[in-house]
Design brief:
This protein is mainly alpha-helical. It has ten helices and no strands.
Length: 214
Amino acid sequence: MTSRKQFDDFHRELSAALKELERAAYLRPDDPTPLAEKLAVARGLGFSHAAMGEVWAEAQARAPHHMSAHQSALQYFCSKWCGSRAEAEQFAERAARHAPRGSLLALLPLLAWYEEVDLEGKSAGLHGTPHVVALVEAALDDARAAKGHPNLPEARHLLAYFLVRQHRYRAALEQFRHVEGYAGAVPWRYRPWGRMSYRLHRARAVWGALLTRR
């Protein structure tokens, strides 16, 4: 259990980080990175929706399709932080709808589903439903156009996970080939045995591709 002192220390560090990020944003008015990080700090500090909206508006003004900023904002709107499943899904769908192909923002609805359904233990039998397959297809199409995108390796991990769960082993194996040796992305980093989970899913992709030719 987290003690009151630990909470106080956590918030003190975040408050100090917030000041430094505001200074960095002031000094580099064209750089979206400080504002993307500020969104994560604001989430930890429990900003109100109105205050978060102001930070989000700043980030959008600098880089309207910045993937890391969108990921931070999505976390804020998830049930485990300051929002709900409906808010998370609405935010993700809106961002994906208005994003250019290759921005990787088509991944957000899939990430929202993972956060709100899969992580909550409510996904049994649902990975292969038409809705989730459509989310994966949209994300795959976006990833194909995202060559050189800094978030592409991270996107491939989530795609590989879902493709294995959908028994699309050859497609999953193709994603794994691009990220060999790294297991610190979603979904593995959420799991107590993240590296083991990564290896098991990769092994399923290899053997599934050999045995089923799918």
